[in-house]
């Protein structure tokens, strides 16, 4: 869903606030920051409802993943591949594509949970204006993707990949998956964690500070948890991603910038893996000892990006739902 022509003409910063209140969700009061949209429905006392929302989100994540694994396993059997899903040892491209696609389903699932449990329209999850703002997305792509490309190149030099043989068909298939599915996979995680969980946990706080702290901490810890890493450096990176993406979402008033950063990280990482013929089994290893101090680079970079966005909004504060 994209903004109308009036929106495109009026946007001049990473914030959009001059839009029709009805598009932002109708009963949401004007002047509400992104993470406090659910406050009116809970009044700081919606912990059981919030826990149910988080359980449903994780249930969808696991359920969609299980179904995708079964489908990919059957496809691999037809192709004669020794997939890990069917008890083999090969981490196939079909399995990886199915996993990405299952995460993309968190976009509609998160919206449905919010609508069902809180009565708030799903489109409010895009941003405080109720639309996925193309202008904000475009600026994030133009400014942040080149920066992230340089960082990924440097990290690849510092952390060389293990090489392996790739079939031409697998390379071409993964190229299509990287371009078409991976951005949706990363967006699914953003809608689930910086969208639904960030808002749910923030609704438990009674004051603005406690609401923001709860939203950031709960969403970040749960985001790190789903990556199932036992490595200190990797967990530090996942926590940094969760914290900075939540703060960016709060200040910009929407998910566009965090979606771009997340998609750039995963898509560029896979592109480099394809170019270098990297072993995906090694690159997806999250066991203890695989990380290093090189993973402090993205932590510092994310802190700088967050600081710049905060500085640019220092006079206006976080983006808020617009007045009529």
Please tag this protein with its features.
single chain, mainly alpha, 13 helices, 65% helix, globular, disordered N terminus, endopeptidase activity, CPBP family intramembrane metalloprotease, CAAX_protease, metalloprotease, protease
Architecture overview:
By secondary structure, the chain is an all-alpha fold. It has one domain. 65% of the residues lie in helices and 0% in strands. The chain has 13 helices and no strands. The N terminus is likely disordered. One of its GO terms (biological process) is CAAX-box protein maturation. GO terms for molecular function: endopeptidase activity; metallopeptidase activity. This is CPBP family intramembrane metalloprotease. Keywords: Hydrolase, Membrane, Metalloprotease, Protease, Transmembrane, Transmembrane helix. InterPro entries: CAAX_protease, Rce1/LyrA-like_dom.
